[in-house]
Fold each of these.
Amino acid sequence: MLAASSVEIRKVNKHFGPFHALKDVDLVIEPGKVNCLIGPSGSGKSTLLRCINFLEEYDSGEIRIDGQLIGYEAPGKKMSGRRLREMRRSIGMVFQQFNLWPHMTARENVAEGLIRVRGMSKSEAHERAAEALTKVGLADRMTNHPARLSGGQQQRVAIARAIAMEPRLMLFDEPTSALDPELVGEVLNVMKTLAGEGMTMVVVTHEMGFAAHVADKVAFMEKGELVSVDIPDRILHHPEDARIQSFLRTYHERNNF
Amino acid sequence: MFSIPVFLESFWPLFWAARYTVLISVLGIALGLVIGTLICAARLSPYRWLHRFAALWVSFLRGVPLLVQLLVFYYALPVIGLDVPALAAAVITVGVCASAYISEIWRGAIAALPKGQAEAAVAIGMTPRDVWARIILPQAFTLSLPALVNELILLVKASSLVSVVGILEITRASQAQAATTFRPLEVYIAAACCYLLLNLCLAALGRYLEHRTAV
């Protein structure tokens, strides 16, 4: 069992110029739970996710990881870079475009953070990287550069890169959206395994099947607002809000043929 | 008539003079890389006055011909009491001029990297220094290699301009030889061959480096 973080999001607002991207968002994520964020594109799901590790700076409100405010010392006063880096160490992130470093092999991608951030020796880091890659089923691809891997394999390396750092919280930003349909399953399987180990996970996704079967809670967002958060069945199968019903109708229409 | 023996004979003094061409080009690009990197860093820095200084540096040095820069630099220094040898003046001018182009090459390569590359490193908790040293610059270097080799080749050819401050590099040596032998055609064709040979070697080196750093 891994140590798992809690996340509390209170009254978070974010503007991009005149655009109000997040409007008084409240969300609590309990330790060891899997939360999926769903909603139409442009609804603020990714922005909210990126605020959790302060890749995106929120304007007001609070985001606390295990009770610790992230990004700010106090409202309006930014946290030092050093302190922010310390907090980010225990938060893993997986991106839609994988963002693997193309000049390094799969194993070097995973080892880099262990060496630079955790201060491990190269051999120790490579050993740990090999373990992480084995865990995502890529023991035989360690010396490949990203360009020589399929999209699904690249995303699994990216997951290995994050879990090798032993995070207590994992953020997934549409991890399967850039993948060919036949490669989605292998990535979702790795994520299911992680969820089963009790990792706190926040997943922005369009994979309703994953949300239905793996998530403890599903949050629906639209136009910067968190419309509703509930157990998957009530959001995905018996939604009361008209906006969720309309979103799911569009989703089912697109996926029926 | 074109005389083959005269043509072949005229190579030897030119090869000897080529050491200055190579010296000025290599030291020039080295100096240009150092200054160009600093200028690029200034250009990308959040400090407005540093940014402006870098922008001014680039636009001035790109806007004035190297030949004029050489003459100004060479004749201005004694006026302010500095006695700089011609070779040093040439290397500095060539390097400074190259720095303007090199900083723009760097800037373009850095801007071409997807934002997610740095983000992935930041999300893991890497320091800004490590993000630059480990993630951005190695990739920017690979991306800019063809442009850097191009710049080096341009520099080899531009080094012919330093003949105006009296350095006996390939061009100046060929002029001197043409004047004494009265065989300008053979001599200048030999000079052309020297430059071509040098630059073919550089192009091959560039291809080798690109091949080695390719991912």
Amino acid sequence: MNTEEPKPIVVRNLVKKFGDQVVLDDLNFHVNKGEILVIMGGSGCGKSTLLRLLIGAMRPTSGSIEMLGTDLTRLNEEGLDDLRKKTGILFQSGALFNSMTVGENIALPLKEHTKLSADVINIMVKMKLEMVGLRDFEHLKPSEISGGMKKRVGLARAMALDPQIMFYDEPSAGLDPIASAMIDELMMDLNKKTGVTSIVVTHDMGSAFKIAHRMILLFKGRAVAVGTPAQIRASGDPLIRQFINGLADGPIPLRVSRKDYAEDLLEPFIERF
Amino acid sequence: MQIRTEVLESGLLGRTVVITAEGEVDMHESPRLRKALADSIGYRPAAVVVDLAGVTFIDSSGVATLVEAMKLAKAAGLELVLSGMNDKVRDVFALARLDKFFRLAATRQEALGV
């Protein structure tokens, strides 16, 4: 990790609204080169929206996202496509094509975005599979391998174009503890060996504290805590304590309805009279 | 990336083609390196030396291109030697666990046995 070099991602005053609802509220953060930044938060905190903004799948209401020196909020589709070639995404589901073999899935971005020969691509597929420990699985279909293996193949495909930035969307979702630990190890290994800057969106606290160089806790669209795992763990803030300890009691409310309960129950009567 | 190809008729290895690559060997450029390698192997020399001393960056497509050249060289019964790679470039080969796959020489002179 290098804090001196230009930062691959700088987010400034980011706001995203859906109608009147503010999902991300003036978010500011950066990611250092070669860093693993974990974005944590409960359901509905805005972390999935943030990820969609970071990969250019959605435009913000206001604010900027500087990625590899370019403000992606100002790019057209062509510019976004160029930027996407320098980034990789591991989707929650792995997002593999079931009709293709494991090898064909990994070869796909190389065939689509480069002029490399079929022979060189075949060698690269083996190299990428070796990287995730699945070299012998090249000719199998996704339906013939386990969920954890699918994620690893998804990771190999996401790394096919040697990205400078990797995004991971809930990497441990749907995995058993062993498969989940393997994905954690792979993420750390790839980060260490390739120096790829990594952003991980997760609500899995065990994984977050294991892999993060720094972490951000989102609550109601705001970054309520930013720091190293040790700093977050040592925090006395009740909201942070509630979240990292998984407690039902605390500042994060159980009920998320905006309307008053009594008002809600009485509303039809009020309207009627 | 700059590529230069020279044929040395009387090296210690015998008739040797030296390919000198300089700059960045990335997904965009590695097809050019591939062509230079295929052309060189096509001369049927005794050896091909790929001088990487001026290479500042190589990605997995560059490494895969050299793996393919190694396969072609072996099939043609000729020696392929990579020389002069800096630590950063060597790390990419190590990451792919391919640093032991190639015959490596510290310098072009060492590769040529002079």
